[in-house]
Amino acid sequence: MPTAIVVDDSPADRLLAETLLRHAGYTVTVCTDGQAGLDLINAAHPDLIVADLITPGIDGYDLARAVRGNPSTATTPIILQTAHYLEPEVRRLAAQIGVMHVVIKPYEPQVFLDTLAMALRDRPAASRGGNGFAGAEFHSEHLRLVSAKLHEKVRELDFARSEYETTASRYRNLFRVHPEPMWVFNVETLRFLEVNDAAIRRYGYSRDEFLAMTIEKI
Question: Which pLDDT belongs to residue 189?
Answer without folding.
Answer: 94
